[in-house]
Amino acid sequence: MPAPLFNRLALIGVGLIGSSIARAARAQGAVREIVASARSAATRRRVAELGLADQVVETNSATVAGADLVIVCAPVGACGAIAKEIAPQLTPGAIVSDVGSVKAAIVRDMSPHIPAGVHFVPAHPVAGTEHSGPDAGFAELFVGRWCILTPPNGADASAVERLAAFWRALGAKVESMPPEHHDLVLAITSHLPHLIAYTIVGTADEFAEVTRSEVLKFSAGGFRDFTRIAASDPTMWRDVFLANKDAVLEMLGTFNEDLSQLTRAIRRGDGEALFTHFARTRAIRRGIVEIGQDSPAPDFGRVHPDLPVESLPRPYAASDE
Ligand code: NAP
């Protein structure tokens, strides 16, 4: 195994992302030692029980003492106060980073507190699930996924490269871009889809007052996939929409125009407009599969993993002939 890239990794926040970093950094030998803290005593206790860190400490500032890499893995809205709290304890030459899903607000809130001589390199691993907490993480979460770095102008190139090497060691592919550009791209690829899922599941729930059992019963017709996205952490997503307001509103404006066009096509019975639109979106899906961002395996009709195979109708059950 190659030599560790960092001596001491300080993790502030050990939920889905923080615990996945801890597990992956351990598995890859990317750091010599991990020190962690979380807001509540219950989470800190669980982190210790799971053995995710060499030391679990009570305060954020105690976590960063002596660390050469600090990664803040808390909700976006908490990161400014955390930066202020840890600033006096940061070691000169250390790298401070984060994993927030929004970047311009992170730069605005954290960078004023980072002392001279400490390198601030924000990051966003574009990988996750709808689960939260230290039990939800796993070492393979970042494998084959992108991690976007948004180093400020004039950032120390070797610090940026060291952080990139850390993420590559965890299996991620790394790209750098300005924070505002990141926020625009993620507004359409992640934030708007989540908003749509939150909306549609809420709408179906109102509708379900009349036909609740049917909505749940026939959920495999597309609704089920929205419910998975809409089960994502409420605190995290509240912060994302508060912090990426401008980019989300811009994308939402375009989305509403496109929705109006499809609404008009349905109202007018314009099958050609509908077909052309759906053919274009099917080609986009093919492109995503071609660049390896998803599997070509059919997903809408997937077999429930907990269903016993014997209960499947004959053509789908494993043949014993
Ligand atoms: P999570 O599972 O809910 O974990 C959040 C962690 O932050 C918990 O350990 C929580 O401690 C801790 N925390 C909250 N406020 C804190 C504070 N003031 N000081 C110290 N620790 C604090 O959330 P997550 O999904 O890992 O998300 C963390 C970050 O990753 C967010 O910024 C999110 O935008 C970003 N991200 C998430 C995903 C995703 O799919 N989930 C993907 C990419 C990036 P307690 O448990 O004690 O409250």
Topology of this structure?
Layout (H helix, E strand, L loop, with lengths): L5 E7 L3 H13 L2 E7 L3 H10 L4 E2 L3 H5 L4 E4 L6 H8 L8 E4 L5 H7 L8 E2 L2 E3 L20 E4 L7 H13 L3 E4 L2 H39 L5 H7 L4 H10 L1 H24 L2 H20 L31
Parallel strand pairs: 1-2, 1-4, 2-3, 4-5, 5-6, 8-9
Antiparallel strand pairs: 7-8
Helix pairs in contact: 4-5, 7-8, 7-10
The structure holds NADP nicotinamide-adenine-dinucleotide phosphate.
NADP nicotinamide-adenine-dinucleotide phosphate binds next to α1 and β7.
Description:
With about 325 residues, the protein is of the alpha/beta class. The chain folds into two domains: about 5-175, Rossmann fold; about 180-295, Orthogonal Bundle (6-phosphogluconate dehydrogenase C-terminal fold). Helices cover about 50% and strands about 10% of the residues. Strands 3-2-1-4-5-6 form a six-stranded parallel sheet. A three-stranded mixed sheet has the order 7-8-9, covered by helices on one side. The radius of gyration is 22 Å and the shape is globular. The termini are far apart. NADP nicotinamide-adenine-dinucleotide phosphate binds near residues 14, 17 and 100.
Please give a quick description of this structure.
The chain is α/β, with parallel strands linked by helices and 321 residues long.
Bound molecules: NADP nicotinamide-adenine-dinucleotide phosphate
Strand residue percentage = 5-15%
- N- and C-termini, Cα separation: 48 Å
Q: What is the CATH topology classification name of the largest domain? A: Rossmann fold
Provide the gyration radius in Å.
22 Å
Most strands sheet? 6 strands, parallel
Continuous helix count: 11
* Dominant shape: globular
